[in-house]
Amino acid sequence: MPRFPFAICALMLAAVCGNLHAATVPPGTALADKQQVVRHIKDEPSSLDPIKAVGLVEAQVDRDLFEGLVNQDPAGKAIPGVALRWQTNDNQNYVFHLRRDARWSNGQPVTAQDFVYSWRRLVDPANHSTFSWFAEFAGLKNASEIISGKLPAEQLGVSAPDDYTLKVTLDKPVPYFVSLTANFSLFPVNRATVERYGQEWTRVGHLVGNGAFQLSERVVNEKLVLTPNPYYWDHQHTVLTQVTFVPISAESAALNRYMANDIDITESFPKDRYRQLLQHIPDQVYTPDQLGTYYYAFNTRRGPTQDVRVRKALSYAIDRRIIAGKVVGSGEKPAWHFTPDVTVGFTPAASYLQQHSQQELDAQAQALMQAAGYGPNKPLTLTLLYNTSESNQKIAIAVASMWKKTLGVNVKLVNQEWKTYIDSRNTGNFDVVRASWIGDYNEPSTFLSLLTSTHSGNIAKFSDPAYDQLLQQASRETHPQRLSEDYNKAEAIIADEAPIAPLYQFTNGRLIKPWLKGYPINNPEDVAYSQTLYVLKH
């Protein structure tokens, strides 16, 4: 597929579009005197250290505190961040030219050596990074060997010939590598700060970042307050004077605070209030498609879900049309595959689930469960783990009811707060666990690679050499049609082995006050930066 050289794209974007990462306030707009925004996040961040982040909760805050080589524009395209321009001739060797006015929040320059240090830190096994796999997936040379302890971090394929030139070597061609550098795991961190404070470096007063904002106050489980970083290279286009993130796991509580004008933008809303909200505040309800899938992962290593027949039976017995249309019910689509329909470069083949009625699937599920040795005289008992959320609870109750009615399964629902849930998930302390995945970039491999045997995000601990080989083959494929065929074969293995049961495809459902402008609501990855936001006079 012909592509513009990345360097040309970057220069065109910078010259023609200006900085699409900044607030774009139309001329004549009447701004509010108080430029402060309160943003809802679903949980307390487990860490503000980019290499310790777990997912969306941490990413929302880290995108304000740090800045990578590139950012995303409102449509999700890569635009200059710390890197002004970049070039590659073979999609395997990249050179990034850094802007000379990038500064840390202590006023010191951001240099190429900062990225070398930070990326080595990501893959160093001593740091136990939750996202080290991302460096491996991105193709950074020697990342796999370093993560497994076979090579020192110094042999990672990244170097700094001078302060403002970063050279990156991959172990395979990755045409979309530039877009991957917007991921929070590849954000730079300040070496002197990390080495001075150790585990305490992300505390208020210690944290030094290079993003548009800096951490001013933090009250655990209550709020994180950010104020503009005066040294940020594009500080002149930062309109907001304060951003407050409030962690609220209960969607109804977040909605109540939103309706009381205590919150300007929610991360979600109670699905059962969707129709009511559309009636009362239609101009504040947004539900565009999002690059994400809500799914249940089965423990493939222990317990009854080690048996593929049990896993398939449980998956078949979930009526996805009811889950998406009634239980969730705010524009979501059933997930017939792991990879969402909105993903670029994927034309899904119709799955077995999609081609059969729920009645037929239920009959097949009962036969599978009987073959596995379970029935009225020997009912299956299992645990279903989910993190605290009204929506998660509603879905868990609905699925447990389907399993009970169709298969006679006794389900014990286990509800845990985020950090405890993550620990239980990571240690395999579950039979079935609620999970979700929002793409780190818009390409099928961001979903399908999750189930490779070496991926740290493989919650099910699924391991299939044929699947691993297929994804490896796909990573080197350059022909679009053959690549799509490989991805469909991968989906077929997932359907046949059932390490997970995809339930529904996400919408980016949220509420936004009419006076808050600049949120990139149509970004399929839901990548947002507070620097693009501003408040109208109201």
Walk me through the structure:
With 538 residues, this protein is an alpha+beta fold. The protein contains 18 helices and 20 strands. It has helices at residues 6-17, 56-65, 112-123, 132-137, 143-147, 177-180, 191-197, 251-259, 274-280, 308-316, 320-328, 352-355, 358-371, 390-407, 418-426, 445-448, 465-476, 480-497, and strands at residues 36-41, 70-72, 78-80, 83-88, 93-98, 158-162, 165-169, 213-219, 223-228, 242-247, 285-286, 289-298, 333-334, 381-387, 410-416, 432-438, 500-507, 510-511, 516-517, 534-535. It has a 6-stranded mixed β-sheet with strand order 13-17-12-16-14-15.
Question: What are the SSEs and their pairings?
Answer:
Blueprint: H1 6-17, E1 36-41, H2 56-65, E2 70-72, E3 78-80, E4 83-88, E5 93-98, H3 112-123, H4 132-137, H5 143-147, E6 158-162, E7 165-169, H6 177-180, H7 191-197, E8 213-219, E9 223-228, E10 242-247, H8 251-259, H9 274-280, E11 285-286, E12 289-298, H10 308-316, H11 320-328, E13 333-334, H12 352-355, H13 358-371, E14 381-387, H14 390-407, E15 410-416, H15 418-426, E16 432-438, H16 445-448, H17 465-476, H18 480-497, E17 500-507, E18 510-511, E19 516-517, E20 534-535
Parallel strand pairs: 1-10, 14-15, 14-16
Antiparallel strand pairs: 2-3, 4-5, 5-7, 6-7, 8-9, 9-10, 11-18, 12-16, 12-17, 13-17, 19-20
